[in-house]
Amino acid sequence: MEKERFILISIVTGDEEKTMASLDELAGLLDTAGGEECGRMIQRLPHPDVRTYLGSGKVEELALEAAITGADGIVCDDELSPAQMQALSHELGLKVIDRTVVILDIFAAHATTKEGKIQVELAQLKYRLSHLAGLGKALSRQGGGIGTRGPGETKLETDRRAIRRRCGQLSHRIKEMEAVRQTGRKKRLRNAAPVAAIVGYTNAGKSTLLNALTGAGVLAEDKLFATLDPTTRALSLPEGMQVLLTDTVGFIHKLPHQLIEAFQSTLEEAQYADVILHVIDASDKDWEMHKKVVYETLALLGISGKPVITVFNKTDLATDEILRDHNADKTVMISAKTGEGLDRLTLALSEVIKEKQVLLKMVIPYSNTAFASRVRQMGQVLKEEYTEDGICLEAYVPPALAGEYEAMLPTPPAADS
Ligand SMILES: Nc1nc2c(ncn2[C@@H]2O[C@H](COP(=O)(O)OP(=O)(O)OP(=O)(O)O)[C@@H](O)[C@H]2O)c(=O)[nH]1
Ligand SMILES: [Mg+2]
Q1: SS3 for 208-256, per residue?
Q2: What stretches in the chain show pLDDT beneath 50?
């Protein structure tokens, strides 16, 4: 099938360079979705035109440009209102889509698990519900072919009701799956192994890092949103401690709110983490903007107050300059591809985790060697001795394990008054 070709459009409100960077990213998204850029049109405006997004003179120019380049459609870098979509497709006689449609399309193509698929469908339906009036012609797969008008009002009303019903069903199923996930999380909590969530901008190298550290074999590609479902793997740190690493869905500038809502539970994986590993593609000229978007998205998801290790990745491609992130507790420079700096990263990780652990001297009765093995696995043992009373262990352990040990101790006799 031939690639659909689109003209990218955007208004410029501030720095033109920023608009262009955002359009470069949109071109990347379009490419991932199987389309192709065949030109751009930008216009400086204080705010989008309510009716046609670009000014009316500019829309005429756009029609001409589309005729010259033979474009199949236009894609707007901002989310269009149904009215704007309708007016533009009417005036241009072309397919009109926006950044949100492209991102939703990519998510739909990349979703592999049942939960991922349901979350994407919900996000798509929510978008469709809010854009029903504008979509008739724009998405000819749903409406009639090119040239037909949008569905009539009655049809719209029945569609609306059907979509709402389906949204209700999907939300319900997501809640059920969330409950299962909670159980898994509780189990992990009981294991007391600390959790580190790998977060970052899409394509930063999160999955590559997880693979490099744990041999997880997760799909890592030069594609936006290659990962949609969280994967967790255990990693043994240099001093014998274990940590669970979770790879998550990437963030992006203007991540559609429908996706944030639908993927809330997936995105929230990081909320239960003890440490955040924030991966940044240091070879990307826009890494500072990406970093800002990641912090903003984390705040939006209510993830704050956790220790952050910022991992500048792809140093094999970047300059030798030492990069810093002043918002992070630690900064490490690595190349997940060559393995450079991974030792520094695991060291930083064990330091951060150790800070959260407590030093404990324990005497564990021989009847409970299982607990001793868990201490060896989850903590970092400094001293171990076999005595008459039991196994004497001095170790750094996660607070949860320390609590368990304390609960195991016989209650001391009440002091005489
Ligand atoms: N040169 C170089 N390329 C890297 C490095 N780390 C990752 N990559 C490449 O960057 C691309 C994206 O890597 P992924 O690991 O899929 O990125 P991600 O952050 O998981 O991306 P999404 O899941 O799509 O959000 C792949 O083509 C990797 O091979 C690195 O250290 N150096
Ligand atoms: Mg990934």
Answers
A1: HHHHHHHCCCCCCCCCCCCCCCCEEEEEECCCCCEEEEEECCCECCCCC
A2: 137-153, 417
Report the separation in Å between the CA atom of 202 and the middle of ligand 2, taken as the mean of its atom positions. Answer: 7
CB 334 within 8 A of CB 312: yes
Residue 370 CA to ligand 2 centre (angstroms): 36
What torsion do the CA atoms of 67, 68, 69, 74 make, to the nearest 10 degrees? -40
| pLDDT tens per residue, range 35-86 | 999 999 999 999 999 999 999 999 999 999 999 999 999 999 999 999 999 9
Q: Is 21 exposed, middle or buried (0-12, 13-18, 19+ CB in 10 A)?
A: middle
**CA proximity to 399, closest of 359, 353, 358, 361:** 358
342 lines ligand 1 (CB under 6 A): no
Q: What is the pTM of this model?
A: 0.83
CA distance 349 to 330: 9
Q: Does 84 contact ligand 1 (Cβ within 6 A)?
A: no
| Closest by CA position to 332, among listed 319, 318, 315, 317 | 315
Tally of residues, the chain: 417
